[in-house]
Amino acid sequence: MPEFTYPLTLWWLALVPSVWWFGTRRRNLPKWRSLTGSALRSVALVAIIIALAGPISKGASTSSNSVFVLDTSASISTEIFARSIEFVNNAVADKPPRTGIGMVVFGASAAVEHAVSEAPVISDDVQSFVDTGATDIGAAIEL
């Protein structure tokens, strides 16, 4: 079953019969010409309505990536940070095939700790230097 971004737009397809009704009521045109015109108008109307509905392609993805964003600011205790690293390591151990994992750390600034890779090695300590005096998650998300 096809999926659409705006499925309610498809209700406009109810106008297609009116195109046929108005198109074939012309008395001064040959029958074949009014039928051809109605058919072409109907095809154009259907195409426009389907385009406005926003069809969604459901192509099968063969891979995916996940990026973990860890707060290293001074407000995060070492225990919570250690549990965060443990969570990331568990995710790496349990990840499905063809899945990339990356990690970004942030405080007042942000840095890529591990680029997305299918075989990441997440260590227990952070190698990237970030200012821990504040928390700016927006900088991490922009990376």
Please outline the major beta sheet.
Answer: 3 strands, mixed
Give the fraction of residues assigned to helices: 25-40%
From the spread of the alpha carbons, the general shape counts as elongated
Major beta sheet, strand line-up = 3-4-5
Could you report the average pLDDT, rounded to the nearest whole number? Answer: 86
Short description:
The protein has 143 residues and is α+β, with helices and mostly antiparallel strands.
Question: What does this protein structure show overall?
Answer:
Helices cover 38% and strands 20% of the residues. The chain is an alpha+beta fold. Helix 3 links the parallel strand 3 (64-71) and strand 4.
Question: Topology, pairings included?
Answer:
Elements: E1 3-4, H1 16-23, H2 31-53, E2 55-56, E3 64-71, H3 78-94, E4 99-106, E5 110-117, H4 137-142
Parallel strand pairs: 3-4
Antiparallel strand pairs: 1-2, 4-5
Helix pairs in contact: 1-2
